[in-house]
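User: Quick sanity check before I run a bigger batch. Here is a single chain. Can you write out its predicted 3D structure?
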Amino acid sequence: MKSELFSSGEHIQIAEKTLHLLNDCGDFLSENTAKSTRAVGDALQDILAEHFGTLLGDYCTDYSANFARRAMADLAFRDKEDNYYVVDVKTHREDTKFNMPNLTSVERLARFYEDDSNYFVLLLIRYCVDHTSIRVKHVDFVPIEFLDWECLTIGALGWGQIQIANSNKIILNPRNSRKQWMLELCETLLEFYPKEIGKIQDRIVYFEKVKSYWELK
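Assistant: Done. Predicted structure follows.
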């Protein structure tokens, strides 16, 4: 099922509303909070949890922001066509030189996308901090398939974790179809897994030598 939220371009307006909401909140950071990127990210997420459903307007039904930290979603909602959206909030502080956040497990996403009415959506927030003042510079609100594989990579955790290779370089391609994007994911994994097998074989050889050393000791 095609989402009117993204096909109509309404997601761009929601991203703009999100930017203005966060910048209109005033100075809500303490000196200690401002020093911690985790604390700033948590503060931004708390504001969004309370207000994001309102920003969605008529597109939103059954809004929820009550999820455990390790859940796939930080926020979730359904639309009037009964599409289901889970939203992962990712914040990036501009003065950090390098940031490589995990997005989701490849296996979890593959299962979630077996249903065409499901959408895994990223709310990407780029900001800077001056003392205790925060300024949100840019917001993207997009399904994961809008992220070009040029800016993504796979991390070796479990089945594999989809990661943004560098949060300073986000490449969007709204023309990507889900089918095209998922096929690229599969091709990427079919190159990734054999390399991981090679690494495991090297580790087996190494610890066979370690075992032999300790047996003779």
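The two ends are 65 Å apart (CA to CA).

User: Great, the batch can go ahead then.
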